[in-house]
Each structure stands twice: as structure tokens, then as C-alpha cells.
Amino acid sequence: MVDSFDYIPLVEICRKNPVWVSYKSVVSFRTYNISMQRNTPLVISILFLLLFAIWAPLVASGYSELKQAGVSQTYPEVAQHYKTAAQRIPWRPALYELAGHAYYYAKEYSLADAMYQKAYRRHGLSPQGWVAWGDVVYLNNDQKRAAEIWEQALGQKDPSENLYSRLSQVYKENGEYAKAADALQRYVSLHAEDASAHYRLGLLLTLSDPNAALSELINASQLDPQFDPAVETLRSALNLAAINDSPSARFVLIGRGLALVQEWELARLQFESAIEADATNAEAWAWLGEAKQQAGEDGSAELEQAFQLDPNSATVRGLRGLYFQRVGNHRNALTEFQAAAVLDDQNPSWQVSIGETYSKLGDLILAKEAYQAAIDLAPEDPSYWRLLAIFCAQNNVNIQDVGISAAQKAVILSKGDAPSRDVLGWLYLLNGQNEDAEKMLTRALELDPQNASVHLHLGMLYFQTGDRAQAYDYFVKARDLGSADAQAILSQYFP
């Protein structure tokens, strides 16, 4: 009977019932114990074999999942295979990061976040994995947590230098401009060939160190000519500011330069600084009102303050005109632009604004006269000839006698740049000169393949000549490049 009990129950029985213990039972117990000790290696081997029999297929299936991840056709499938492989091959936690990458590419940011967290808890995140983890959190609209992840990543071994550019962007969005500049400076020190980084650093430094800003902007221009126009605008603004004795005026000049390159957020800070330096600076108030409008705010209070301070400023009157134009009050806008044109009678821009406003009021004759007045003030500037041509095209008036001639003049003065050729091609199209239009627009596209307007006009040409397939392709490209007109045409004619 004793031999039928397992080892542990037998000991327990003997402990609770000492009267049961006899010589025979003790001998049997000792014999059983000795037998177990002698068979321990065999027991361990059997247990190992049992465990191997259980785990081997599981591990094998993990490697099979890993292989499937390499041949799957969609990112969600790839992610799922990597995730399953990571679960079945626990000593390879980096597979969770790969699953996160796949979900990242699939734009499943929450799922990617979960995978990166698993990799982090298992110490399986690479330096680039830290960057990607912050990316998906940022793209999931949690900037604060993204910044925390990237800041934590800086404390890891061999952190990615890309962390600095990410942190700079987040700091800038949070209004922490000094921190943004410092982070980007660290990035630039490691990526001296990155023209875009130099340019962005130059923009940030306009707030604190204009001389250093100018140096970074010039570096950007030298590395990539595409920054030349913006850098030239900013360089002019910074140079003018440097020779101005008024701190308030310096802020306005730099702010205007930033506004001209569409950096309205930074420009607004300059205008606010100008007002802090001199609250009676009417132009600073007017530009602040414009900056607020660019940010979707009202801005009318600042413009009214500017008008009260100096009603004889062409800048103040002109910016008030823009405000009225935006709210649809074209009569008041015309009054302001006309006042600006009187106060600054050598500036052709005011005549263009007058022409545009007359056009919206339906007076095309006075509108054309205003555009021609702008040309009279700057006859060698192709932009004003081009604007007259665009006016004719938009309103379908004087196409042959005025519009085409103006566009041809713009092409000559601009040495055949893409915008001027685009406008001339458009006018040829409106005048029924399809062959000339195609040649001109094709050449414009060669000069600037990313010009949405050229794609739009080529789409219109082929649609008009009955080639719907080719027209569709151009309309789609124009839409993808940001053309609202192309989107409207696609919605109406290619549902």
C-alpha cells in the first residue's frame, strides 16, 4: 500500500499519523527516496524533453511568422506577423519595434504606440525606434507626450540626432522659441549639409540674434538655391533693420520680412515687440492686426488703433483695405486702397489692389485702367504685365488685344519663366489657339513640374479637345498640388 503513494503525500501521512509508521514503512520510504535521487537526472531529462516538445513548435511558428512578415503585401499584415513572432520568440523584443514601424506606415498610430511601448518595456527599442515612437504619438495629436518621449530618448545610449529636429518643431509649436533654436542648433552642428535646417534655424534666430540669423540663412541659400528668394527677402529686411536707430522700427522691418516669406507666427512676435518698444508706432499696430487675421483672428481693433495713431500712413490704409476686402466690404476697401495710392503714389502694388477691387465690384473698365497704371509705374517688371493678363483671362475680356500682348510681354521680361508661360498658354487656350497653348504650357511644365496652375490649364486644354483620359490625369495632379479649381472640375465632370 505504501508504494502506491507519491512521495509528498506519504510524508504528510506519516507526519499526521505517527502510529502508522513501522519499520517496514520506514524502509520502504527510504528505498523510495533513494530511488528518486538516483532517477533525478532522468526526471529532469524527461521534463526538458516535455518542455521542448511544447515550446519547439511554438518557437518554430514564431520564425514562420517572421518569414511571413517579409512577404506580406500590406502593412497591417506585416505588423500582425511581427507582433505574433515577438510573442513566440520572447528573446527578440526588437520585433515589437518592427511591428510598430509597420503600423506606423499603415497610419495606425495607436496600434504603433502600443507596439513601441512593448518594445520599450522589454528594452528592445533602437535609437530610431525612439524617434518613431515619438512620431506616432505626435501624429496622434499628443504633442506633450511626444516631447516627453523624445526628451527621454536623449538619455539613452547613442540617441538619434533626429531627436533634436523633432524637439525643435514641438518647442516652436509650443511657443518655446529659445529652446527650439537651441535644439535645432544641436541638430545643425551634426548635419551641416541640411539646408532646410539652416533656414529654419535662421528664422528662429531672427527673434534673438539677427546677425547669427543672417549667417544661417546665407548658409541655407548656398546649400540649396531654392531658398534664394526667401533668403534675399529676409536679408534685405535684416540689413535695413541693422541700420535703423529705432528699436521699434527694427522689429517692424524684420517682422515685415518674415511676413513676406509667410512666417506669420514669427512676424507677429516681432510686431508685438515693436509695440512694447513704442506703443505709438502705428505701422506696428497695423501689421499686428494683419498677423492676427492671418492666424484666423479678427485684428480689426489693432487696425483701428493704427488708424487713430496715423491716418496718413499708406501702410496703415493699405492694410485696412485688405481687412475690408476679406470681409467683403469692397467699397470701403476701395477707399482705403485709393488713399494709400495717393499717399504712396510711386508704388504700383496699390494700383493692383485698386484694380482687383474694381473687378470685384463689377467695373471692369476701371479695373483694367488700374492694372495699366501699375504697369506705367513699373514697366520693366514682368509681374505687373502678368497680372494684367490674368485679369483679362479671369474675366474673359480683351483676350486678344490686351491679354495675350501683356502675357507675351511678361514672357519676354521674365526670360520665359514658368508662371509667365503658363498665363500665356492659358490665354492662347481661351483664344482658341490650342496648338500654341499646348506648346507654351508643355514648356512651362518642363520648367516647373510642380506648378499646379500649369497642370490645371493642360487639363482644361485636353478636356476641351475631347481627350478626357489625359485631362483627368492633369486635373488629378493639379488637385494633388493644391488646386481648388481642379478639385471642383473633378467633382463636376469626373464624379
Describe, in plain words, how this protein is organized in 3D.
The protein is mainly alpha-helical. The chain contains 28 helices and no strands. It has helices at residues 7-16, 23-38, 40-71, 75-88, 94-105, 109-121, 127-139, 143-153, 162-173, 177-190, 195-205, 210-223, 228-242, 247-260, 264-277, 282-294, 300-309, 314-326, 330-343, 348-361, 364-377, 382-395, 399-413, 418-430, 434-447, 452-464, 468-480, 484-493. Helix 8 (143-153) packs antiparallel against helix 9 (162-173), helix 14 (247-260) runs antiparallel to helix 15 and helix 25 (434-447) runs antiparallel to helix 26 (452-464). The model is unreliable at 1-27 (pLDDT under 50).
Global mean pLDDT: 89
Shape descriptor reads globular
- Structural class estimated from helices and strands: mainly alpha
Tell me the fraction of residues in β-strands, as a range. under 5%
* Shape-level CATH architecture of the domain at 311-379: Alpha Horseshoe
Give me some keywords for this one.
disordered N terminus; 78% helix; 495 residues; mainly alpha; Serine Threonine Protein Phosphatase 5, Tetratricopeptide repeat
